[in-house]
Amino acid sequence: MRTLGIITRRELGGYFSTPLAYVFLVIFLAGAGAVTFYMGNFFGRRQADLLAFFGFHPWLFLVLIPAVGMRLWAEERKSGTIELLMTLPVTTGQVVAGKFLAAWAFTAIAIALTFPIWISVNYLGEPDHGVIVASYLGSLLMAGALLALTSCLSALTKNQVIAFVVGAAASFIFMMSGLDIVLGFFTDWAPAYIVDLIASMSFLTHFQTITKGVVQVPSVVFFLSMMAVCLFINVQIVELKKAG
């Protein structure tokens, strides 16, 4: 655990050692405020809730998460520091987990910095804080699953731009897989269990379930399972690259 903590702190410090991290934070916070108060018609709805705020989180994450995750392994491979990293007395699993936890912590900081919006809605009315807390939890879980997916894809390339584009595309596919427009493509020829499987993989569906204020175990297990599976694949990819 001590080794994992050292790796996590090293990686998290790396984010704030460059101005790029602060640019990401500013863009995310500005985007969150804009979509909530303007695109979400916050004042026009005259309701003291954060439905508009959390409703746009999945789409904000399609940009923020790949931007955060693209550097996890692509930068290491491009600079050649991955070879040096792997010569240290640490396991591949510890490195993968440490990098992921650092990126997740950075994302959690970005999400936490949106607290003024929560304060604003309290000033304007009496929101259901249970729903808001559940929605923040769902947002954090979804961000973790998207990060694990992006980290896995980042390990496949040395180019951060490619890692960003592929990560964003894969995240979009998982986000949209539960919508009728996507499922309709499969219902005409695929067995029902295949259609149900594709529908169950939708990040958006599980996130929207949590934002209703009910933290259902299947949705939590889904996001945690996605993290575990993607990180396991991430370890295998790094091991293969190292052996090659």
Written account of the structure:
With about 240 residues, the protein is mainly alpha-helical. The protein has one domain. It contains 15 helices and no strands. It has helices at about 1-15, 20-40, 40-45, 50-55, 55-70, 70-80, 80-85, 90-110, 115-125, 130-155, 160-175, 180-185, 190-200, 205-210, 215-244. Helix 8 packs across helix 15, helix 10 runs antiparallel to helix 14 (about 205-210) and helix 14 (about 205-210) runs antiparallel to helix 15. The longest helix is centred in the last third of the chain and has 27 residues, at about 215-244. The protein starts with a helix and ends with a helix.
N-to-C SSE string, H for helix and E for strand:
HHHHHHHHHHHHHHH
Structural class: mainly alpha
User: What is the overall number of helices?
Assistant: 15
Radius of gyration: 19 Å
**Spatial gap, N to C terminus:** 29 Å
Count of domain modules? 1
Keywords for this entry:
about 240 residues; mainly alpha; 15 helices
Concise synopsis of the structure shown:
The chain has 244 residues and is mostly helical. It has helices at 2-15, 19-39, 42-45, 51-55, 57-69, 71-79, 81-87, 92-112, 115-124, 129-154, 160-176, 180-187, 192-200, 203-210, 217-243.
Spell out the blueprint of helices and strands.
Blueprint: H1 2-15, H2 19-39, H3 42-45, H4 51-55, H5 57-69, H6 71-79, H7 81-87, H8 92-112, H9 115-124, H10 129-154, H11 160-176, H12 180-187, H13 192-200, H14 203-210, H15 217-243
Helix pairs in contact: 1-8, 2-5, 5-8, 5-10, 5-11, 8-10, 8-15, 10-11, 10-14, 10-15, 14-15
